[in-house]
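pasting for the record
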Amino acid sequence: MATERSPIKVPCENEDLPEKENAPDFNEETLQATADVYSNKGNEALERGDFISAIHFYTKGIKINCNEKELKAKLYNNRAIAHSKLGNHQDSLRDAEAAIELNPTFLEAIVRG
């Protein structure tokens, strides 16, 4: 008999993102590098099956608000994966749609959505 897994609700942190949280002296290269670090930490957490931590790290990367659309699309897509693993399908769909909006040819996000 299969057990039904109930979704674990994690606060969705992609609504009402603040304007750039960056100090004025942070250039785009620094912002992108910081977002990339959060992406890597999220990937590591996702691989360990720690989906809540993965969501946290991807959200931090998104909030960096760098102008690199491909990186931001990957952050949203990977957060969609983590939400999906927790059964948070609405949040997963929202993130997949955000990834597609940033990169309309992002096949993985299109399939996920």
